[in-house]
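Q: Give me the 3D complex with zinc ion.
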Amino acid sequence: MNNTDRRITAQALNQQLLEQGFLAITREHPGGISLQNRIQLDNCSLQLIDTGILLVEPHPHQSTGMRDIVISSGIHGNETAPIEIVDRIAAKIIAGAITVRNRTLLIIGNPVAMNLGKRFDEENMNRLFNGKHRGKTHHEALRAKKLEKCVASFYAKRQAERIHYDLHTAIRGSLHPKFAIYPYPDGRYWNKNQIAFMADSGIDAILLSHQPSSTFSYFSSAKLTAQAFTVELGKVRPFGENKCEDFAAMENNLIRLISNQAVPALDQPADKQQSLLNKVSIFEVTRELIKQSESFRLNISKQEKNFTPYPKGFQITEDHPQGHIIENDGDAIVFPNDNIPVGQRAGLIVSRTTI
Ligand code: ZN
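A: Here is the predicted complex, encoded as structure tokens.
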């Protein structure tokens, strides 16, 4: 390809982004896009860093916001609602319908798995962050490494409040249809304003993590000191079957953040947030269930919902040498999954708590 062809191709990609949208161009180039030239729009600039990674920055004279916001989706390729949310936000930015005041990085995480309509291709990407991609060469490991690098360099540009919401949908139904996982804070406080923001965005429950993990949100929290959450927005459905009104509270709050409008849950002191905090149930992880043998079995039905409470003494799993017995009345299981290799996590036992 000569230089003229390269320029035309590059222009064509930016043109395609503007005309067809972020999701369409990501779908068409799952394997990667080279760094593109910046596109100057009336109220912001856009830059495709790679496929599914779109940097949005206010023009310097408009850069009044002091938050740097990462909104990621599609780390699991079949979780379409979050991908559609990110695509709608990108479309509104391109159309000039959002006045961008805070730097924002929009991500569609795993375009290969998305095109396959699968949760993952080679390996669950949300087990590959925080360095867990090291020594692996498959595309999902390389993509996790790339996303880590992009988020780190996005935040490194200036001193600002760092926020990362990694949006997902769950395999099962849930007694708390929308919930957020708060990564292990490594000695930092649980931030009540952030929990109030989740409540204000339609989240019913917060799950406090008990240890470091290999998720994207834990990476941003632990390595980059971001306020980060894995946000579960409901049940997984194919493209086109999500109702956008189900996600309006979260989507509108994200747009308010991007355009630096007042978000009382975050901007007013935590002691003013009690009514929002009262709306959410808070759980802590008390045990991680690891599949120890091929005889592992869950003693709950396939339809059982996340957060269903069990009585003390209930044998919730069979395994070798032993399964797990519920230790406290009301303890619940989240993310039960027996379709995994031995040695991997088959679910989390959680208990109600307060902060
Ligand atoms: Zn997911």
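A quick observation: The chain has a mean pLDDT of 93.
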